[in-house]
Amino acid sequence: MTLLAAQVAFYYMAAASVASALLAVTRRNPVHSMLWVLALFLHVAGIFLLLQAEFLAAVQVVVYAGAILVFYLFVLMLLDLPGEEARPRFGAHWPLAVAGAIGFVLMIWLVQIEMVNSGGAGLVSATASLEAAEDPPSGSVKDVAQELFSTFALPFEMASLVLLAAIVGAVVLARRRAPS
Amino acid sequence: MIVPVGVVLGLSAVLFGIGVFGFLARRNIILMIVSIEVMLNAVNLSLAGFSRHLEEPSGQILALFVIAVAAAEAGVGLGLIIALNRNKPGASVADLTDLKG
Lengths: 180, 101
Known about the structure:
The structure holds two protein chains of two kinds.
Chain A: H1 3-26, H2 30-50, H3 54-79, H4 94-117, H5 126-134, H6 140-148, H7 153-174
Helix pairs in contact in A: 1-2, 2-3
Chain B: H1 5-25, H2 29-53, H3 58-87
Helix pairs in contact in B: 1-2, 2-3
Protein backbone atom coordinates (compact mmCIF):
# COMPACT_ATOMS: atom_id res chain seq x y z
CA MET A 1 0.00 0.00 0.00
CA THR A 2 1.38 3.38 -0.86
CA LEU A 3 1.88 5.96 1.84
CA LEU A 4 -0.88 8.21 0.57
CA ALA A 5 -3.41 5.39 0.46
CA ALA A 6 -2.44 4.38 3.98
CA GLN A 7 -2.84 7.94 5.20
CA VAL A 8 -6.24 8.29 3.55
CA ALA A 9 -7.28 4.99 5.13
CA PHE A 10 -6.06 6.15 8.53
CA TYR A 11 -7.94 9.43 8.44
CA TYR A 12 -11.08 7.67 7.23
CA MET A 13 -10.84 5.17 10.09
CA ALA A 14 -10.18 7.98 12.57
CA ALA A 15 -13.18 10.05 11.43
CA ALA A 16 -15.44 6.99 11.29
CA SER A 17 -14.42 5.82 14.75
CA VAL A 18 -15.05 9.23 16.31
CA ALA A 19 -18.43 9.44 14.55
CA SER A 20 -19.51 5.96 15.59
CA ALA A 21 -18.38 6.55 19.17
CA LEU A 22 -20.45 9.75 19.29
CA LEU A 23 -23.47 7.97 17.85
CA ALA A 24 -22.97 5.10 20.30
CA VAL A 25 -23.18 7.29 23.37
CA THR A 26 -26.07 9.39 22.09
CA ARG A 27 -28.53 6.92 20.46
CA ARG A 28 -31.84 6.47 22.24
CA ASN A 29 -32.22 2.76 21.48
CA PRO A 30 -29.63 0.73 23.46
CA VAL A 31 -29.36 -1.91 20.72
CA HIS A 32 -28.53 0.77 18.16
CA SER A 33 -25.89 2.10 20.56
CA MET A 34 -24.40 -1.36 20.80
CA LEU A 35 -24.26 -1.70 17.00
CA TRP A 36 -22.45 1.64 16.74
CA VAL A 37 -19.98 0.38 19.32
CA LEU A 38 -19.46 -2.61 17.02
CA ALA A 39 -18.68 -0.20 14.16
CA LEU A 40 -16.25 1.63 16.47
CA PHE A 41 -14.44 -1.59 17.41
CA LEU A 42 -14.07 -2.66 13.77
CA HIS A 43 -12.68 0.74 12.77
CA VAL A 44 -10.24 0.69 15.68
CA ALA A 45 -9.17 -2.78 14.50
CA GLY A 46 -8.49 -1.22 11.10
CA ILE A 47 -6.31 1.44 12.74
CA PHE A 48 -4.42 -1.32 14.58
CA LEU A 49 -3.72 -2.93 11.21
CA LEU A 50 -2.39 0.37 9.84
CA LEU A 51 -0.17 0.64 12.94
CA GLN A 52 1.19 -2.83 12.11
CA ALA A 53 -0.32 -4.41 15.20
CA GLU A 54 -1.83 -7.31 13.26
CA PHE A 55 -2.31 -9.65 16.20
CA LEU A 56 -3.95 -6.90 18.23
CA ALA A 57 -6.32 -6.21 15.34
CA ALA A 58 -7.27 -9.89 15.15
CA VAL A 59 -7.84 -10.06 18.90
CA GLN A 60 -9.86 -6.87 18.75
CA VAL A 61 -12.20 -8.35 16.15
CA VAL A 62 -12.44 -11.83 17.67
CA VAL A 63 -12.57 -10.97 21.38
CA TYR A 64 -14.03 -7.47 21.50
CA ALA A 65 -16.37 -7.38 18.55
CA GLY A 66 -17.04 -11.12 18.57
CA ALA A 67 -17.30 -12.13 22.21
CA ILE A 68 -17.61 -9.16 24.56
CA LEU A 69 -20.08 -7.21 22.47
CA VAL A 70 -22.30 -10.24 21.86
CA PHE A 71 -22.25 -10.82 25.61
CA TYR A 72 -23.44 -7.25 26.19
CA LEU A 73 -26.19 -7.67 23.61
CA PHE A 74 -27.30 -10.92 25.26
CA VAL A 75 -27.64 -9.25 28.65
CA LEU A 76 -29.33 -6.22 27.15
CA MET A 77 -31.95 -8.40 25.50
CA LEU A 78 -32.23 -10.66 28.55
CA LEU A 79 -33.17 -7.71 30.74
CA ASP A 80 -36.05 -6.82 28.43
CA LEU A 81 -36.37 -3.08 28.88
CA PRO A 82 -39.76 -1.99 27.58
CA GLY A 83 -40.17 1.74 27.15
CA GLU A 84 -36.42 2.33 27.29
CA GLU A 85 -36.67 4.57 24.22
CA ALA A 86 -39.27 6.76 25.89
CA ARG A 87 -37.09 7.43 28.93
CA PRO A 88 -34.60 10.31 28.94
CA ARG A 89 -31.22 9.20 27.63
CA PHE A 90 -29.13 11.48 29.79
CA GLY A 91 -29.32 12.53 33.39
CA ALA A 92 -30.21 16.16 34.10
CA HIS A 93 -26.52 16.84 34.72
CA TRP A 94 -25.43 16.10 31.13
CA PRO A 95 -23.99 19.59 30.42
CA LEU A 96 -21.65 19.01 33.34
CA ALA A 97 -20.68 15.69 31.79
CA VAL A 98 -19.89 17.44 28.48
CA ALA A 99 -17.77 20.04 30.29
CA GLY A 100 -15.99 17.32 32.26
CA ALA A 101 -15.23 15.29 29.14
CA ILE A 102 -13.96 18.33 27.20
CA GLY A 103 -11.80 19.41 30.11
CA PHE A 104 -10.40 15.91 30.36
CA VAL A 105 -9.55 15.77 26.65
CA LEU A 106 -7.87 19.20 26.78
CA MET A 107 -5.84 18.06 29.78
CA ILE A 108 -4.67 14.90 27.98
CA TRP A 109 -3.86 16.96 24.86
CA LEU A 110 -1.68 19.36 26.87
CA VAL A 111 0.31 16.47 28.28
CA GLN A 112 0.56 14.78 24.87
CA ILE A 113 1.77 17.94 23.09
CA GLU A 114 4.37 18.39 25.78
CA MET A 115 5.39 14.76 25.41
CA VAL A 116 5.60 14.75 21.61
CA ASN A 117 7.58 18.01 21.61
CA SER A 118 10.10 16.58 24.02
CA GLY A 119 10.50 13.58 21.69
CA GLY A 120 9.01 11.15 24.18
CA ALA A 121 11.88 11.72 26.60
CA GLY A 122 11.18 10.59 30.12
CA LEU A 123 8.56 8.17 28.86
CA VAL A 124 10.67 5.38 27.55
CA SER A 125 14.18 4.39 28.43
CA ALA A 126 16.60 5.36 25.68
CA THR A 127 18.06 1.86 25.61
CA ALA A 128 14.77 0.26 24.61
CA SER A 129 14.49 2.24 21.39
CA LEU A 130 18.20 1.81 20.68
CA GLU A 131 17.99 -1.97 21.00
CA ALA A 132 14.97 -2.02 18.76
CA ALA A 133 16.83 0.01 16.18
CA GLU A 134 19.71 -2.46 16.07
CA ASP A 135 17.94 -5.65 15.11
CA PRO A 136 15.94 -5.31 11.89
CA PRO A 137 12.18 -5.49 12.42
CA SER A 138 10.84 -8.94 11.63
CA GLY A 139 7.22 -10.04 11.54
CA SER A 140 5.21 -8.10 14.11
CA VAL A 141 3.25 -11.13 15.32
CA LYS A 142 6.47 -13.05 15.84
CA ASP A 143 7.95 -10.21 17.91
CA VAL A 144 4.84 -10.01 20.05
CA ALA A 145 4.81 -13.77 20.63
CA GLN A 146 8.51 -13.80 21.49
CA GLU A 147 8.05 -11.07 24.06
CA LEU A 148 4.76 -12.44 25.40
CA PHE A 149 6.12 -15.91 26.17
CA SER A 150 9.51 -14.80 27.51
CA THR A 151 9.46 -11.47 29.32
CA PHE A 152 5.74 -11.46 30.02
CA ALA A 153 5.22 -15.19 30.66
CA LEU A 154 4.26 -14.69 34.32
CA PRO A 155 1.77 -11.86 33.66
CA PHE A 156 0.33 -14.02 30.87
CA GLU A 157 -0.39 -16.82 33.35
CA MET A 158 -1.77 -14.29 35.81
CA ALA A 159 -4.23 -13.14 33.14
CA SER A 160 -5.66 -16.64 33.02
CA LEU A 161 -6.14 -16.50 36.82
CA VAL A 162 -7.93 -13.16 36.46
CA LEU A 163 -10.25 -14.68 33.85
CA LEU A 164 -10.88 -17.73 36.08
CA ALA A 165 -11.78 -15.46 38.99
CA ALA A 166 -14.09 -13.50 36.70
CA ILE A 167 -15.85 -16.69 35.54
CA VAL A 168 -16.43 -17.86 39.12
CA GLY A 169 -17.48 -14.37 40.18
CA ALA A 170 -19.96 -13.96 37.35
CA VAL A 171 -21.59 -17.34 38.09
CA VAL A 172 -21.82 -16.62 41.82
CA LEU A 173 -23.25 -13.15 41.27
CA ALA A 174 -25.82 -14.07 38.65
CA ARG A 175 -26.95 -17.38 40.24
CA ARG A 176 -30.53 -17.53 41.38
CA ARG A 177 -30.61 -17.78 45.17
CA ALA A 178 -32.40 -20.85 46.53
CA PRO A 179 -35.40 -19.73 48.61
CA SER A 180 -34.50 -20.20 52.27
CA MET B 1 5.02 5.43 10.47
CA ILE B 2 2.24 6.62 8.23
CA VAL B 3 1.03 9.45 10.47
CA PRO B 4 2.80 11.30 13.31
CA VAL B 5 2.36 9.61 16.66
CA GLY B 6 0.70 12.79 17.93
CA VAL B 7 -2.26 12.24 15.60
CA VAL B 8 -2.85 8.75 16.98
CA LEU B 9 -2.59 10.06 20.53
CA GLY B 10 -4.99 12.92 19.79
CA LEU B 11 -7.53 10.51 18.30
CA SER B 12 -7.16 8.28 21.35
CA ALA B 13 -7.79 11.26 23.65
CA VAL B 14 -10.95 12.23 21.72
CA LEU B 15 -12.33 8.68 21.90
CA PHE B 16 -11.52 8.57 25.61
CA GLY B 17 -13.38 11.85 26.12
CA ILE B 18 -16.44 10.47 24.32
CA GLY B 19 -16.31 7.47 26.65
CA VAL B 20 -16.07 9.77 29.70
CA PHE B 21 -19.10 11.71 28.49
CA GLY B 22 -21.08 8.51 27.92
CA PHE B 23 -20.22 7.18 31.34
CA LEU B 24 -21.14 10.40 33.12
CA ALA B 25 -24.27 11.28 31.18
CA ARG B 26 -26.07 8.04 30.23
CA ARG B 27 -28.68 6.71 32.62
CA ASN B 28 -28.80 3.14 31.32
CA ILE B 29 -26.36 1.10 33.41
CA ILE B 30 -25.39 -1.24 30.54
CA LEU B 31 -24.52 1.68 28.30
CA MET B 32 -22.42 3.13 31.12
CA ILE B 33 -20.35 -0.07 31.16
CA VAL B 34 -20.12 0.01 27.35
CA SER B 35 -18.74 3.55 27.66
CA ILE B 36 -15.99 2.09 29.84
CA GLU B 37 -15.21 -0.28 26.97
CA VAL B 38 -14.94 2.71 24.63
CA MET B 39 -12.44 4.28 27.03
CA LEU B 40 -10.42 1.05 27.26
CA ASN B 41 -10.34 0.89 23.47
CA ALA B 42 -9.03 4.45 23.31
CA VAL B 43 -6.23 3.50 25.68
CA ASN B 44 -5.40 0.45 23.55
CA LEU B 45 -5.16 2.73 20.54
CA SER B 46 -2.56 4.92 22.19
CA LEU B 47 -0.65 1.84 23.36
CA ALA B 48 -0.56 0.52 19.80
CA GLY B 49 0.54 3.95 18.56
CA PHE B 50 3.42 4.06 21.02
CA SER B 51 4.32 0.48 20.20
CA ARG B 52 4.64 1.42 16.53
CA HIS B 53 6.42 4.70 17.24
CA LEU B 54 9.07 3.12 19.47
CA GLU B 55 9.34 -0.18 17.51
CA GLU B 56 8.73 -1.95 20.79
CA PRO B 57 6.25 -4.87 20.99
CA SER B 58 5.58 -4.57 24.73
CA GLY B 59 2.97 -1.88 24.09
CA GLN B 60 0.90 -4.37 22.12
CA ILE B 61 1.27 -6.89 24.92
CA LEU B 62 -0.03 -4.40 27.46
CA ALA B 63 -2.98 -3.81 25.14
CA LEU B 64 -3.61 -7.57 25.04
CA PHE B 65 -3.73 -7.62 28.84
CA VAL B 66 -6.12 -4.68 28.79
CA ILE B 67 -8.41 -6.70 26.51
CA ALA B 68 -8.20 -9.72 28.86
CA VAL B 69 -9.08 -7.57 31.86
CA ALA B 70 -11.89 -5.91 29.90
CA ALA B 71 -13.37 -9.35 29.22
CA ALA B 72 -13.19 -10.19 32.93
CA GLU B 73 -14.72 -6.84 33.83
CA ALA B 74 -17.57 -7.36 31.35
CA GLY B 75 -18.34 -10.77 32.88
CA VAL B 76 -18.42 -9.54 36.47
CA GLY B 77 -20.17 -6.27 35.62
CA LEU B 78 -22.95 -7.96 33.68
CA GLY B 79 -23.33 -10.58 36.43
CA LEU B 80 -23.86 -7.70 38.87
CA ILE B 81 -26.41 -6.11 36.53
CA ILE B 82 -28.38 -9.36 36.29
CA ALA B 83 -28.38 -9.76 40.08
CA LEU B 84 -29.45 -6.12 40.44
CA ASN B 85 -32.18 -6.53 37.84
CA ARG B 86 -33.64 -9.45 39.78
CA ASN B 87 -34.15 -7.27 42.84
CA LYS B 88 -35.16 -4.09 41.04
CA PRO B 89 -36.28 -4.41 37.42
CA GLY B 90 -35.09 -1.76 34.98
CA ALA B 91 -31.65 -0.56 34.04
CA SER B 92 -31.78 3.10 34.99
CA VAL B 93 -29.23 4.24 37.53
CA ALA B 94 -31.65 6.95 38.66
CA ASP B 95 -33.78 4.25 40.31
CA LEU B 96 -30.94 2.93 42.43
CA THR B 97 -31.34 5.13 45.48
CA ASP B 98 -31.34 2.51 48.23
CA LEU B 99 -28.15 3.81 49.78
CA LYS B 100 -29.53 7.33 50.10
CA GLY B 101 -29.61 8.30 53.79
